[in-house]
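Hello,

Our lab assistant flagged a job as stuck in the queue for most of the afternoon. It eventually completed. Since we weren't sure the result was trustworthy after the delay, we are filing this so someone can double-check. Below is the sequence as submitted and the structure that was eventually returned. Let us know if re-running is recommended.
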Amino acid sequence: MKKIIYLNRIYENICAFTPILKNKKFFAVVKSNAYGHNIKKVVTFLEKKAKQDKILNQKLLGYCVKDFEEAQKISKLTNRDILILIEPLKYYLKKIKNYKNIYPTVYSLEDLKIAIKHNIPFHIKIDTGMTRLGFYPREFLGLKNTLYKNINLIKGIFSHLSCADTDKSFTLKQYKTFIKLTKDLKRKNKNILLHLENSFGSLYNLKNLDAARIGLFLYFFKRQAMEVYSYLLQTKWARYFQKVSYCGTYKVKNKEYLGVVFVGYNEGIFRSASNKAYFLIKGKKAHIRGNVCMNLIIVSLPNKFIKRGDKVEILSEKHNLNYWSKILKTIPYEILTSIKGKETFIE
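-- returned structure --
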C-alpha cells in the first residue's frame, strides 16, 4: 500500500486557519508520529516554510508530542519549544536536563515536586471537564501558594476542550473555569502562556488566551494531507451463491466480477468496513465483498475492463476522511493514526 503525504497541503491548511487565530499563536500538534504523517518530515517541512513565511515564523510557537522519544526525534530540527503532553517527567528526568527547549507537562503532585526540586521549567495542566489528565480546579487552587513561589518555572498553563465540536455551552463553561483559575497567575507573570483551544476550539475565537494547539486542522482542514492507494492482485468471476472471504458473510447473487486488493486490517482498513465500504477504481465504486482480511480485501469490480495491477483509490480528497469516519462510525484521528504503508512525500 502506498501512503502519499502532501506536505504542501499542510501548509495550505495553516494558511487557511491562521487568520482565524487572529492575535494568537499556535503549537503544531505532531504527537503520535504527526497523526501518521511522519513527525520528522512534518517538522522539517514546517521549519523550512517558516524561514520563507514571516507570518508562519511568528505564529508557530512550537510542537506538542506525546513522549520524550518523540521530543528527541525533532529536537535537532527546531529551536522552538517542544511540549511533552503525556509521559510523566520522572521517566526522562535525567535526559531532559540536556535540552533547553523541551518542556514537560505537569499534571500530578509528584511531577510538580520533581520539577521544582530540579528547577525544570514546565507547563501545568488543569482538568476543566475532560476528566482525563490534569489537576481538578479544587486541586489547582490548593497549589496556588506553591505556584506563586515558583512562578518563574511556569512556562505555560493549559487545559483540554472535550466537546468543542459538539457542545458549545460545555466548551464555554470549561473556558470560563480556565480563565478564572489562571488570571491571577497570569497577572503576576505575563510571560506565562495560556493555551486552551484545540483545532475545533480555535473556531470559538476565545479571548485572553495566548495560543492554541492545532492538531487535526494541520492535516485535514482546507485540504486532506494524506492519500492512500493500492492495486489489484487478481481478478476473477464468481458465480451464483459462491461465498466470499472468511465466514462467507457475502454470497454472490448473480455472476459477479471480483478483484482482490492488496490491503487489509494490518494496513489500517478496519474489519468493520466489511460489506459496508467501497474503494474507487478508475473513478467508479468498488464495494467490499465479505470480511476484510489481514492483508487482502475482495471488492466487486465496476466493469469487466478492469485488470490485475490497476490502481485502487483507498483514501483521497474525493474519497475522504469524512466518508470513512461515517461508514466506520469513528473519528478521523483513529483512521489517520492506523494507516500504514510505504510513504511518499510531496512538497
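-- support follow-up --
The delay was a queue issue, not a problem with the job. The result is valid. The two ends are 20 Å apart (CA to CA). The chain has two domains: 7-219, 226-346.
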